[in-house]
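Researcher: Good morning. I'm working through a list of sequences from a screen, and I'd like to move beyond sequence-only analysis. For each chain I'm collecting a predicted structure so we can compare shapes side by side. This is the next one on the list. No need for commentary yet; just the structure.
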Amino acid sequence: MGTRNTADLPPTLLKFHENHVDVQIKTIKETIDFADIVVLCVKGKYAVDALKGYEENLNGKIVIDTTNPIDESNGPSGGSVLNFFTKINESNMELLQKNFPKAKFVKAFNTIGDAVMVNPKFEDGPPTMFICGNDESAKTEVSKILKTFGHDSKDSGPVEAARALE
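Model: Good morning. Structure tokens for this chain:
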């Protein structure tokens, strides 16, 4: 698990680490360098900034993008409708792919909560996780992870398909 400052961990991460001592907590650079597959789990508005400075480390890496471009500045509009900070013809994943062109981004895990992320149990069988990205081999690897986690997967196409998935 990567963090900017390993010396000053927030209480929730300290508690997590106490209960999962086998999980290593390293710097973001160390984590990216160690990982075969990187999972980006930050608020969407911080996604690009979280990876800035690690362009070379991300070259050729599969990055699972779990983010959504939710604009929290004014709260939901119209009661429960979420606002996005992206334009109608762009997605957060497109912004990521543009900023880190040599990384292999795959959109996944952005449409479900943690309660059904691993081994979901539904009466009608495994749920389908919609994924997208430009690299076919990366999408194949992410589909294998999804299968291990108890999900079917459906390839929605290239990075631009993230507009519908976000």
